[in-house]
Design goal:
By secondary structure, the chain is an alpha/beta fold. The protein has one domain (7-217): Flavodoxin domain (Rossmann fold). The chain has five helices and seven strands. The chain is globular. The structure holds flavin mononucleotide.
């Protein structure tokens, strides 16, 4: 790719509320990409009414890797193909992606499109998985979640689909009331951070998210 070409990005937002922190971070990521010269397609899965449930039209036909899927899925496939970089922004649910995003992968990253060809169509694309976690940064669950995401998203899905680069990021402290399990399994919910401390908390959160996006866009060895 010449550096004069317009770069393209797909931001996949997986959240049911447009006023969520997740949606906020997704919108900031869109702006950040645009400022970096990308043409951005924001795919708001819930806002666009995406149904994560697998259906007959979109299940793979193992005898036909050229199967034509539902118009909705074919449209999403075109949007994936058009993007050089893909950034998924989602809340971490049970140490993984929410069902909405999982269903998008199930239906759209289909046989004959995302995998199952000697020349993978997603080869050369780069992907960042940006997960917001309610747990606090010092919670021992955070590295465990990171390992889970690396294994399931990068080492499994992205590897299987021939993506050239896939990275996961866990952003802890997404809640204003810190939560942790105590030694006997009760959920301790701390006091909400308020006022200037709250502003500082979320400003730091935004900076951390933006830094991860910057790092992703300027990988070692690839000039910006
Ligand atoms: C069903 C569900 C499961 C969750 N599982 C986890 C989890 O495994 N680890 C974690 O740190 N936070 C977990 N959380 C907290 C969310 O990650 C957190 O509420 C979210 O990132 C906050 O962003 P939002 O305001 O945009 O929803 C869970 C929340 C819900 C609703």
């Amino acid at each position: 790719m010449s550096h004069n070409d317009t770069r393209t990005a797909l931001v996949v937002l997986s959240h049911h509320r447009s006023d969520s922190l997740t949606a906020h971070i997704a919108r900031r990521t869109v702006t950040q990409l645009e400022d970096a010269g990308y043409t951005v397609d924001l795919l708001d899965l819930h806002g666009e009414g995406f149904d994560p449930r697998m259906n007959t039209a979109d299940q793979p036909d193992w005898n036909d890797r050229d199967k034509v899927f539902s118009p909705e899925v074919e449209d999403h496939m075109r949007r994936v193909l058009a993007a050089e970089v893909i950034i998924a922004v989602f809340p971490i649910y049970w140490a993984y992606v929410p069902a909405l995003l999982k269903g998008w992968i199930d239906r759209v990253w289909n046989y004959g499109f995302a995998y199952g060809r000697s020349k993978p169509r997603l080869a050369g694309k780069r992907m960042l998985w940006l997960g917001l976690a309610g747990a606090t940064a010092d919670d021992g669950i955070i590295p465990a979640i990171k390992t889970m995401l690396d294994t399931q998203l990068s080492a499994s899905i992205a590897y299987y689909c021939g993506l050239s680069d896939s990275r996961t990021v866990v952003l802890p402290d997404a809640e204003e009331r810190p939560q942790r399990l105590d030694a006997v399994g009760n959920l301790e919910i701390g006091a909400a951070v308020t006022g200037a401390a709250r502003d500082a908390h979320f400003a730091a959160f935004e900076r951390t998210a933006a830094q991860h996006v910057t790092d992703f866009l300027t990988p070692v060895g690839i000039p910006a």
